[in-house]
Amino acid sequence: MSQRKIALACSVCGSRNYTIAASATRTQRLEVNKFCKHCGKYTLHRETR
Ligand SMILES: [Zn+2]
Question: Residue 13 in 3-state DSSP?
Answer without folding.
Answer: coil
